[in-house]
Prior knowledge:
It is built from 11 helices and 17 strands. The chain is of the alpha+beta class.
Amino acid sequence: MFNDLVKNKFSILWIIIIFIILFNYISFNFFIKDFIELEKNENYKSLVTLNTHIDSKFNTLKISATDYAQWDQTYDFIEDKNKEFIYENFRDDSVTIENINANFILFINNKNEKIFGQFTKDLNIKDEEDFTKFIIPSLEKDNYSTIIKYNEKYYYLVKSKITKSDLTGDFRGYVYLGKLLTMESFNKDYESILKIIDIDPHESDIKLRNRFIDDVSVHFYYQKDILSNIITLNNQEKALISFKLEMPRKIYLQGENSILVFNFIVSSLILLIFFIFYLYLHQLKKLNLNLEKRVSEEIIKQKAQEEILIQQTRLAEMGNMINNIAHQWRQPLNSLGLILQNIQFSFEYGDLTQESLNKSLDKSDKIINAMSNTIDTFRNFFIANKEKALFQIEHSIDSTLIILNTILSHHNIDVEKNIKDDIKIFAHENEFSQVLLNIITNSKDALVENSIKNPKIEIIVKKENDKAIITIEDNANGINEELLDKVFVPYFTTKKKGTGIGLYMSKIIIEQNMKGTIDVKNGSKGAVFTITLPL
């Protein structure tokens, strides 16, 4: 596929285009987050400033209303309706309301009856009684500040309890103080970007704290050039008024332009790099053609050498098997020779009877059958089974030990078999037996080479967590620690006439063919081979 890409210029071009598109997309979304965050911070500052302005309007009214409400003259006026109080404080040439930056004031007793009210002329209130009846229920219960809408105009409204200056005496009513809410009253910075709108029904994205209003919620509308903030003031979960504050997205647009310029520069560099890289690949391709040809030739040579080496290994194993058969047959052949000599001597001396002949023939037949069984055992051991089958691990171990019985006995090697669980597995039995043969033969060679007294090989079979564990341990003093990692490496051997194929082939059989694992470590007495197979 790599070579195809080198040959096909259009494929490389499409890869570059796709890469650049992905890079620009990821880069833009990664960096724009920082500019959006900066934009949010600046926008939040404007919202806080606006909220502070509203808070200050309420605060100014609240201070003035409290001053009137806690004035002893006011406390008496609510009770006796003294006209002198009105004249001193609210006669025509008085500018008291304007001085406290209010548009109207109402004195209401504890029966919700208006005792006195005054309105500035610019309010143009046609029916003051109707206006008063509208205002009084606007601040029921414990509410002391709100915004009201009357005849399409909005008003800041606060109230304070009328008490004596020392806070003694019974509660006698409220002082209501109001201020017309106009866009002109806001800072000039908001002159063109703030306006009153219909109540917004959307859920808020953030909330702001205000001392006089229960809840100030803000909902964001993002447009290309404008970030619209819909600010809704609520009291007792009732919407009072909504503002739209439109903030120009200068930070976002500047950030967007900066990122686009950055991406253009980087994309141009990527195109240049890929162009240079393509020229390099084109040149490299010529070198690879020669290298591939040489590698191919070397692989063919190496495979041929491997085939020769494996064939030599098979011949060596066959020689070992013939040697084992010879050991197995030596004693039976000697016994047959002795039986034939006895028959001959008995015949020459006239002692041969039908009964003695029959006994000799029976004995010879048993020996021949035993020799025939030995041949069958060796023959079956090397038959390649094409299909997997269910077999007992213990049976495979026994078959292997029969093959090696004579050579192990010859070197006085004791084999201890410890079968803790009767386990059957589904695989090629002969392949598994070949692995056992390789491991036990390596243990035998180590025991003989190290001249171990009381040589011993222990085979343990058990089941753990739905897996078969076969452990083969000898007492040949173990393997050099520096060589442990190389035991299963192909062609690695410490024997003078070894091929280094046996344990490598065993690893291939266990891990690839049987989906298990095989490893080796040094135990307290010698090498410990552990085979783990799934059941």
